[in-house]
Amino acid sequence: MAYASDRLAYGVCDITGFRYRLRDMRKTWDGLLVGPDQWSPKEPQLMPKPTAVDPQALKDPRPDPSSNGKDFYANFLVYSTYKDGVLGTKLQTFAMNANVGTVGVTIT
């Protein structure tokens, strides 16, 4: 699209309302058309630096076929009470013990 240009074309500043030559006006980073005395560059605080990307999991990992399965440190068992344990064996009882330690209090 072609725009008309003329040495006598004027525009109105969006901040002050003053009239300036259109060729002298500038557009700010947020889209305002302003005179040359009102224009300022975008502040660096508004342009944050990109953060580092966290590492991702491996796509399609494959275990070592020569291992016998004893090199894993955790065993996971799946229990379900949904429809008589369709996902695994039905969980009948559940017990859990936890110890944090001892706390000593001295009052002086």
Short description:
With 108 residues, the chain is low in regular secondary structure. It has a domain at 10-43.
Describe what this molecule looks like in 3D.
This protein is low in regular secondary structure and 108 residues long. The chain has a domain at 10-43. It contains no helices and four strands. The radius of gyration is 35 Å and the shape is elongated. The mean pLDDT is 76.
Provide keyphrases for this structure.
little secondary structure; 108 residues; two-stranded antiparallel sheet; 4 strands
Outline, from the CA principal axes?
A: elongated
User: Could you give the count of β-strands?
Assistant: 4
- The residue ranges in which pLDDT falls below 50 over 5 or more consecutive positions are none
CA-atom Rg in angstroms: 35 Å
Order of helices and strands: EEEE
> What proportion of the residues form beta strands (DSSP E)?
5-15%
Helix content: under 10%
